[in-house]
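Section 3.1: Structural characterization of target chains.
Under the original work plan, the team committed to producing a structural model for every single-chain target entering the pipeline before any wet-lab resources were allocated. The record below documents one such target. The sequence was received from the expression subgroup and is listed exactly as submitted; it comprises 401 residues.
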Amino acid sequence: MGEQDHQGPRAVVEHARTTFTIVGTAHVSKASADEVSELIRSGDYDAVALELCDSRYQNLADPDRMAKMDLFEVLRNGQAGMVAAHLAMGAFQQRVADQSGIEPGAEMKAALHEAESAGLPVTMIDRDIGTTLRRVWRGVSWWQRMQLGSGLFASLLTRETVSPESIEQLKEGDVLESTFAEFAEQSEQLYRPLISERDRYMALRLMESMAGKGYNNVLVVIGAGHLKGLSGHLEGEPAADPVSERESLEQVPPSGRFLRYLPWVVAALVIAGFVIGFSRDTELGVKLVSEWFLINGALSALGSAIALAHPLTIVATFLAAPLTSLNPTVGAGFVAAGVELLLRRPKVADFSNLRHDVIEVRGWWRNRVARTLLIFILSSVGSAAGTYIAGFRIFDQLVGG
């Protein structure tokens, strides 16, 4: 195959009688998209593998997929934060597209189109983005979680021009890596699930589904940042059991026992504080309960108010938060978002315009879907803050008294 002026980095690896030509692409580059198209049109390959998971493939194939989601089911299943994260990364991606004139992932779209035209089988080899995000979340400390959450939320609200450094980062990796690049460079706990685990996962997927399965030459299209890691795994010792190892990388580590039981412990301590307060003096007990309701309800309602919730939603949040904090099976955010849905149900246009509205700061408040997600998140944060502030207040008064 002739050299091309815009040829990106490549590696050719033979594994189990199958030759893998691994092309490292720039995710924001017309040249990479053209290169991938030319390679598939050459007729040298009998299969194509892409650095995509099924959900990202569906988003490429159907850009308006989110418009079809059931928002209430999202809230009930505790996926509001995940959906908001997807929207935040999508907003970042769209800003890059607007600024550079190149849609991120153009080379993946080109590969899908050319493979379909050539009648070649296509395999998605990347790990599900939701699994990766959950493994990242579970693998870091609570302090790093706060940093990640605040950083993601800041990118959610910013409309500033994307820096040249961010665009260069996106050329090497995907939008997921670009979003957390600053943190990943400083943390092994982040680097492992975000980069190295995915290198291994993609190698296992190739071993499992393509190596030795009758394919002679497979074109593998991945971000340039994964080229070295993926080729190294394919050149190394074959996995004893690719399926089992791949499945182990799909498991989300359970949250620590302490974190699982912490909400119940806090609720038990608060109730115990009420009991002790009333046993000492009725007036003290009433004061503790009143402060609990006022602090917890006010901070959670403040979160709803910042999200510009309906006035009745704000009232409902104020009343519900002190009670939901004593019953960890139901969150204040779920109640707040549920009431908002009843009062201001999103219209078809809100779902249709969701991807474009969230690019702008005002769009998060203008679009009813995005605003409901903000209400869920901000009221939940307010309730959590209120729980611990009011809890320490109760403790201080009991000890001080």
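The CA atoms of residues 188 and 295 lie 38 Å apart.
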